[in-house]
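Contributing new complexes? Match this layout with manganese (II) ion.
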Amino acid sequence: SSIERDLQRAIEQHEFELHFQPKIDLAKGTVAGSEALLRWRHPERGFVPPWAFIPVAEHSGFVCELTHWVINEACRQIKAWREAGLPPISVAVNVSAADLVNGDLSDFVANTLVTHGVSPRQLEIEVTESMVMHDVETVIATLRRLRSMGIAISIDDFGTGYSSLAYLKRFPVKCLKIDRSFVDDLDRTSDGQAIPKLIVDLARSLGVKVVAEGVETVRQAERLIDMGCDEAQGYYFGRPMPAEDFSAYVMQAP
Ligand code: G
Ligand code: G
Ligand code: MN
Ligand code: NA
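Output block (do not edit by hand):
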């Protein structure tokens, strides 16, 4: 497709950029980390949202090249923030199933960390439950290699995929992210607390961290604090923003 051809050109022409959304430590109110979200500034089409090109890139196999760009850019930014005197902030990047099945992701990550002199503790990887369904053994092997390098793995959109809880025991998971549809329900329905609470308790008993996504109101934040959720992200705390805005955000944060 024309989008496919455009994607290759877009990398060469530096049309992609990462925006960063803060993750807030709910107990302390401090910035606990960030999630990197890909943005495409197309010269004619203007801003192209991820849902319009990531599925295309996944379908064509180009997504692996895109993920490499994202990981390199995340590491470059971590280094730039460090050189600017910012406190160390972790960056979580989203990857696709193809990145895990191809198996070379851990080599690429290892090399890129070395190139930029970045600690593996500052880079995190977000995967979805559905990715586990693709070639389970290969995916687990790739995730274990990443984990053994010191990279934290989060399960994104937790509770929305088709998967069994059994994989949680086999996966080197560091964190569950409560999908924003469940966070929405927190102040919409009377039983809205049930699923977020269940995920918080599950994370607690597995000994993993839990992050709520899509927090838009103070009420949602308060309910999540009450149930013992560790971290949250969402428009209430901060939108995904360009790197310069994100560093200003961190500078003025508690
Ligand atoms: O803000 P938002 O519109 O950025 O993101 C929409 C969707 O695109 C989310 O599901 C998010 O996980 C996905 N996404 C954003 N950036 C990336 C990326 O760099 N790689 C992949 N694979 N998905 C991304
Ligand atoms: O699937 P993933 O969790 O990676 O995607 C994050 C998506 O959620 C991005 O599109 C991001 O822009 C969006 N997002 C982040 N915070 C909020 C929020 O508070 N409300 C809504 N509606 N979307 C959000
Ligand atoms: Mn994500
Ligand atoms: Na999500």
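Reviewers usually confirm one structural detail per submission. For this one: The chain has eleven helices and ten strands.
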